[in-house]
Here is the input.
Amino acid sequence: MTTLVHGTDTLTRDALTVLQPGFVGTTAPDWLLRRIGEGLSSVGLFGRNIVSPEQLAALTAQLRAERDDVLVAIDEEGGDVTRLEVKQGSSFPGNYALGSVDDVELTRAVARELGRRLAACGVDLNWAPSADVNSNAENPVIGVRSFGPDPDLVARHTVAYVDGLQGVGVAACTKHFPGHGDTNVDSHDALPRIDVDLATLHARELVPFRAAVAAGTKAVMSAHILLSALDPHRPATLSPQILTGLLRQELGFEGLIVTDGMEMQAVAATYGIERGSVLAIAAGADAICVGGGLCDEDTVLQLRDALVHAVRTGELPEERLADAAARVRALAAWTQAHRARGAESVSGAAVQEGTAPGTDIGLVAARRALKVTRGERPYSPMTSAPYVASFTPVANFAVGDETPWGIAAELERLLPGTETGSYADSSVDALLAAAGERRIVAVVRDLHRHAWMTEALDALVAARPDTVVVEMGLNEAEPRGALHIATHGAARVCGRAAAEAVVGTGA
Here is the structure.
């Protein structure tokens, strides 16, 4: 194991300790291992770092060969946002599906199995769950990542998810504090603003976070959103009133406060990542998440040096940086101790589907989440290969466009010869020509948010009334088609459950 470099002072080590950077590649680059040896205490993983469970386990072992208490973090929500299965689609439905079932024991079981898989691969901090109350159906970035629009429902499922993850030694990071649900702007692109009064915030946005804090969530992630009733000048990530005053003092949270990605435009476009990181730590954050876009050594060194400089010039109190670093080390110690205690209990955890008890829990949940609405005419299950038309909106950054979605692959498994095409405009002439005499399955995602998609689907159903419609986003639009299937999410298992319904073997 690499020891700390001689001459690296406490201030510099603390500055490295509060960073959670990413990197490129499926093995750790030399620069990352060197910085871990100098005091870097956390590493964030993304889809680009993962090929298989075995490769991921080897990667985390490589990191811990340098420092056995390093925190390995990941953004693994299940559902639409997956890194473990970025090329295949998730084995677990997301929050919206779980919220639609509203069985907290099911949610706990799903989170526990997901946590088992993470732990088996050496990951011990999950930037999940989303505790956002999706009160704005036009929200372009939360949507199916939320358990739903009801604060109490979101609260009870957030608690169950935290319990499930942390019960197997994976620290939960409840996000996006103090609530990203009532926005119509993606903070990856610009600064969202929520202009509601304090009473509304306390009765809606803050309810799940209060519950998560009471349940013992080990970490909370801040949101890059401006809540004018709490701080009219700075986004939550940079606001002492929100991070220290509200989260620490009023809600009583003593765990790790992690920022959302500092390269997101909501912060970076106005403050830059260096000043933004200094302001975030000064406001009460303990860990700087960076690496979704900026994932090189220069970024780490720039942020480290910016924090050191801010302390030396008096802009950032040294005690605040030391406190932040201590909270990172405390969480690392918790995860390390849990790994040591739970090594035997998680040794049989699933590293691939089908190798441990309960690994089908995701499919069980996806099947339960289906809502099937039959049209006016009798529906006869498909017995021959259909044509699947996927109406494809632009993916938001959190979901990404690497992960496949839809039901074509699952229908092909059940009905060999299934063909598919992707469409992104309102014309259906090419679609109808491609389908020929085949029955059509139209797959949509957030139909209510896309006028072109609605126009295309209405034209398709008018031309072909026997069309089956599968909604894999928010189920806000009126049902259409001979059979309408709402999956409440676009995970692979949601597609499988929908395919079963299409052929008459499922719901």
